[in-house]
Hints:
Blueprint: E1 2-5, E2 12-15, E3 18-21, E4 24-27, H1 32-41, E5 51-57, E6 61-68, E7 76-82, E8 84-91, E9 102-108, E10 114-117, E11 121-127, E12 132-138, E13 147-149, E14 170-171, H2 173-176, H3 181-186
Parallel strand pairs: 6-14
Antiparallel strand pairs: 1-2, 2-10, 3-4, 5-12, 6-11, 6-13, 7-10, 7-12, 8-9, 8-11
Keywords: Isomerase
Pathway: Carbohydrate biosynthesis; dTDP-L-rhamnose biosynthesis
EC number: 5.1.3.13
Amino acid sequence: MNVIETKIKDLLILEPRVFSDERGWFMESFNQQSFEKALTAHQLDAPVFVQDNHSFSHKGVLRGLHYQLNPHAQGKLVRVVQGKVWDVAVDIRRNSSTFGQWIGVELSAENMRQFWIPAGFAHGFIALEDNTQFLYKTTNYYAKEAERSLLWSDPELAIEWPIDSTMQLIVHPKDQEALTLAQAVEAQSLF
Length: 191
C-alpha cells in the first residue's frame, strides 16, 4: 500500500496494490495489519472499525459536511467502488493548528484511492458522476443524537467544490441549513 501524506498530518490518502492481467484485476480493499502499519508509521493510532456504510448518489449530489460529537465521534475510511467523487475533510478540532482547514481528494473506481479521516473532522463529498457508490468504514456506530453538520458552502471554509455548469446540485435541506464554522464554535458543538 502506498501512503500519501496531506498538508493536515492526520489525513492520509491510501493507494492499494492492484494486480492486473488479462482477466482483470485483484486488490485487498482492506487489511487490518497493513492499515495499522501505515498509521503507526505516521505516528497515528490505528482504530477498530465497527460499521460499514454504502451510499448511492447521482451526479451533483452533495452530502455533508457531517460529523458526530463525542463520545460517538467517528473516524472514517472511505472509498468509491463505482463512479467518482470530490471528497472533503475539514479539521474541527478547536485546539488543532489546522483548525478550519480542509483537504479535498478525488476518489474514483478508477484510481481506487482510499481516504483516512479520523474523528475530529467534518466530512462530505460531491458525486461527479451518475451511479456513484461510496463505501465508509467507521470507528463508531451512528448515533442520531450526536449527529452534526457544517454548512458545505460556508465562506469562511471556502471549500473549492468542483461544481460546473453541467451539474444540477442536489443538497438535502438538512445540509442546506447546517451551521457555519463560526456558529458551531459559538454553539460549542465541535471537538
